[in-house]
Amino acid sequence: MRRMFGVRISAGFTLLEMLIVIAILAIISVLAYAIYLPQVLKSHRNDVQAEMAAIAQQFERCRTRSNAFNECGLADSFDGELSERERYQFEVSEGDREFSIRAVPQSTGNQTRDKCQTLTLNHLGVRDTTADGLNAADCW
Fold this sequence. Notes:
The protein is of the alpha+beta class. Helix content is about 45%, strand content about 20%.
């Protein structure tokens, strides 16, 4: 009863059909990952920017209390520290009237693939990046 009225009844997929489906799925997966990875890096960058803003707020509180950024020892407590998820390392410097916070991506993770590289925030609220060909607006 394989043939009824001249039509062959199929019992499954051929090997060629399965290979075509697997190839299509592989192509879609590669494209999805290529779109997904930059969004993950951007999310990690946003996390460290929030941490940098919190550190800057602590500097401002210190200046409000003591009229100087360097009176509270914040640079000593944050310099060399890792971000919450350990993707960036902070480099913090302070003076009487200024401070600077740098977030350097760690070489142990994927964050070094981020297009923005090192992020900087200073006492004037100026945000910058060390990436070639990008301005701060592209990264902040």
